[in-house]
Amino acid sequence: MFDLVPPVGSTYAADIDNVIVLVAIIVGFWFFATVGMFFWLMWRFRHKEGQKAQYVTGEEPVLVRWVSWPHVLIIICDVLIIVAAVMVWIDVKQTLPEHARDVRVIAQQWAWTFVQPGPDGQLDTADDITTIDELHVEVNQPYRYHLSATDVLHSFSVPVFRLKQDAVPGRVITGWFEPIITGQFDIQCVEICGIGHGMMGGRIHLETPEQHAAWMAEHRPATQVAAATRTP
Amino acid sequence: MTATTADHGHTHSHHHEPHWAIKYLWSTDHKMIGMQYLFTGMAMALIGGYFAYAFRMQIVFPGEHVPTWGIVTPAEYNQFITGHGTIMIFWVAMPVLVAAFGNFLIPLMIGCDDMVFPRINRLSYQIFLLSAIVLIASFLVPGGGFGGAWTAYTPLSAVPEYNLTPLGATLWVIAVALEFIAFLLGGVNFIVTTMNARAPGMKYNDIPIVVWMIVLASILFMASVGPLIAGAIMLLFDQNLGTHFFDPAHGGDPLLWQHLFWFFGHPEVYVVLFPALGIVAEIITVFSRKKLFAYKMVLYTAIATGVLSFFVWAHHQFIAGIDPRMANVFTATTVIISIPIAELCFVYVATLYGGSIKFTVPMLWALAFMVEFLIGGVTGIFLGASGADIYFHDTYFVLAHFHYTFFPIAIIGTFAGLTYWFPKMFGRHLNETWGKIHFWGTILPFNGIFIPLFFTGLLGDHRRIYSYEHFPDLNTEWLQSLRMLATVSAIMMFAFQVPFLINFVMSAIRGKKADKNPFKSNTLEWTADSPPPHGNFPVLPTVYRGPYEYSHPDREDDYWPQDEPPKKGSASLAPATEAAE
User: Fold this and answer.
1) Domain span including residue B495
2) Which residue in the set A2, A27, A54 is minimally distant from B551, CB to CB?
């Protein structure tokens, strides 16, 4: 009940969490060191009757060291953070898995449309499966998403994946994810998109291969069903 | 020019007392214009605060009757969050920190009788007032106020069919553009006055840091606002004249607006931060009786921060659909900006070293600024690091981080300045006991609001959600109890502003009379009467030393006013003056 973060649901979720932990450790150290120093100085140099403050210009080398040494350490910490952040970023946003299933994600005011290939594995064929506000994917299977918007900006966010990407009208933005757990979780639109922004939620169903195959069979597209019934 | 204006003012008042409307609404006196900005900003803060109350209530009691408002509809909810952000940044932080303190302090602290361009100054306030009226009008027109968030991302803001507030969105853009014009006019005045009208003897290194900071803020504002004014005009044309600057179907680009907005929007953070940092510098030196630690380092670091702030804007857009390789560049620049900011933090903390610290009300505010802003600063690193921002973007973590920077700046910084210069502004002292009650009643609930929101953000709670019923993972008891804590704290904090307002008014009317220099400060404004008359000084002062010569070993007194002539024959020409040569 008192969770700190959502479940780790994708291959890169743990990497992103690790960046967060790294930053937390570094800035936590600096924060408590600075605040500790701050409160100690406040207490140590509180006003006492008859005691005059010291005259310090801040250019004395002995004192300047107290500012410049931590400063060098901060630069080192910055470099660490930048390297860690960029490495994860490149993995999540600048690379694509080679063998992956495609899923088209279309955002509009105020719903999500997901188009997946049917049994033929190809998008834009008659057996495509279209779902609204509900995305069914298979665990341990990389997916490439092709994200677009029909009207205003939206943003495709799946917290358990630690994935977020804005959808921009006029563009198709491609990215990827690979689920590693099963279950049902939230899909959010996280870019304000008008009056219905607060109801633009969806659900992602992370399924075992068997569950997913059953779902696929259940959702044979209408055209196929129609074709099947026409042939006696 | 300043001299003639002052003379005109004097002869005028000899003849007859001007009509109140002329005196209060048509004044060219920098102090009166400062007050106009201050009170307009405070009035707007009440509106912005009320909006926050209304949407926080909707979040914890979705769909229920909110006392004093009623049922909050989704459209109203979006208007409240948009109005809150817009008002608090553009109509509270900017007018109060830059314009009110800038107008009131600059001529007094550099020892001249008024701004160099007093009529432009008056025009600046009048345009600002007009912009505030236009903004308030935008909430009342058919269709309601604009609800596309304070960032007004296109195409939502550009197309009436998408935002459903055709008039509200247009008036929002017009109000923002007018407001920018007002601050451009004011900024010209601040810069020119500080460069040209300083008291004889006041070298660059003798200018109080708060004046430097307001000048730097004005320069940053002037350098960054051009693209956004252009963007605002383009948005206005898209909304009303059928152009397609931001419409991809006709060759436009929605992301263009984001670049124009954030190219201004990020330096804007430093536009409001700098005056607050300056105010805090004045207060911590006075109440710890210490020279500011490394004056020049503070100044150069602030300049470096200002320059760097022009190279970080795209960190707001990591996942916005820009080329992902850009994120690597902007992560580096963003994290690097922590270097000068950390420097400033260290220098301010170091100023306390060896001091004689008195915990007066202004000092409490100044110290609180340092701690709270530090929280805002360190949490920013999470967001500047692109890898972590993929997760944090647009969550309550961002919101909490943002409020830990802006609240110290706009609210704590303002209260620090207001309580410190109150005797100079109104000639009377604020009641200290009530001041302390207000301080703790504001600071403790403030942390009660935003610490829980860091945790909801960590759990993936995203911003601007009217009701959580559509997001089962966010609609949990644990998250809702964190949200409740935030809302209850917010209401407590609002309630504690009532004693402040009462104390403010009562002290201004009936407080203990203040003499010229109640806190034994060095800077020039404390050599004028409290409150200073039109023309400020009986004799324009001459400056002999820097502003922070507290507890100098050669002196009996622990302060050394900037305008006190050195003793004849002695070798005690102030060291700061020598250093400045």
Assistant:
1) 2-580
2) A54
